[in-house]
Amino acid sequence: MAERKKILLRLDPAVHDALARWAGEELRSTNAQIEFLLRRALDESGRMPRGARAIPRRGRPSGRRPSASEKETREDTTEDETE
């Protein structure tokens, strides 16, 4: 994978605080939020380069969630074991 570019970005402190709050609400880092917004703006304006890679997925791996019937079966088994 190509190395990611590092840049220095000067922001008004109020803008940075607003971005940091927004990022926190969406469970992203401030850096990831800025990249997300820049990519969205590029995409919406039709300026996203064709060779641009997707944003790397971070955090917990997405696993299959148990169905409602599987949850009920687990709860029944747990109750039987505790009695």
TrEMBL record:
Annotated region (Disordered), positions in chain: 45-83
InterPro entries cross-referenced by the UniProt entry: Arc_rbn_hlx_hlx (IPR013321), Ribbon_hlx_hlx (IPR010985)
Biased composition (Basic and acidic residues): 67-76
Signal peptide coordinates: none
A biological-process GO annotation: regulation of DNA-templated transcription
Listed name of the protein: Toxin-antitoxin system HicB family antitoxin
Provenance organism: Halostreptopolyspora alba
